[in-house]
Amino acid sequence: MISGVRGPIHAKYPGIVLIDLHGLIIRVLTSQTTVDDLGEVGDHAELYTHLRVREDDITLYGFSTPEELQLFELLTSVTGVGPRVALNILSSARPEEVHRVIESEDIASLSRVPGIGRKTASRIILELRGKLPEPAGMQGQALAAADAEAMEALMALGYTAPEARDALARVERREGQTVEERVYAALQSLARS
Q: What is the band of 59 on the pLDDT scale with cuts at 50, 70, 90?
């Protein structure tokens, strides 16, 4: 079993990273979140991986954090959720946000992800609610909830989920910060970029 790869980034594409392992180029399928988190071509990368072997296919999936890998494996354990749908979920939100959506039984947010209808969203919530480990990067439920609300507000203003997520990631997090303050700071960040 391959549990990780480490080496220079050979190329980056939407949902795919090519890693140079001393002349052997490995193709790793991943979430757009991980692609965005990785450096540029030539930079050193380390990915936590999941090897999937099928009768006619061998695929390596990789993620920048062990939490994202664990969430991928839990999502693909749900009936009717394959790797492509799991990657869509992880591309639309960071692990702590996915955790919040599942634990709060937010079917509407989950069903907005491409490839997921209300029925599949309900099944994911039913099978995973209460089984997810607390994400390591979470700085408290209130802060995660504020980020979720801020992300929804930015999406309501017409920004895509990745744009909203990246803008919020650039905003300094402070305890006691209101949703409105986070949205305002994220809008300023988006205006500068």
A: very high
103-121 confidence digits (pLDDT tens):
888 888 888 888 888 999 8
Place of tokens 């991943």: 30
| pLDDT for position 139 | 44
CA-wise closest residue to 47 among 24, 76, 26: 26
Both tokens assigned to 145:
């909830």
Roughly how many angstroms between the first and final C-alpha of the chain, as a whole number?
Answer: 41
Tokens 């990780």, residue?
4
- SS3 letters for 54-109? ECCEEEEEEECCHHHHHHHHHHHCCCCCCHHHHHHHHHHCCHHHHHHHHHCCCHHH
List the one residue out of 146, 79, 175 whose CA is nearest residue 119.
79
Quick check: 75 and 89 in contact, CB under 8 A? yes
Tell me the H-state helices in the chain: 32-37, 66-76, 83-92, 95-103, 107-111, 118-128, 141-156, 161-170, 179-192
DSSP class of 134: P
**For residue range 135-173, what is the model confidence (pLDDT) as tens digits?**
554 444 445 556 777 877 887 888 876 677 778 878 877
CB 189 within 8 A of CB 170: yes
∠ CA 74-76-82, nearest 5°, is 165
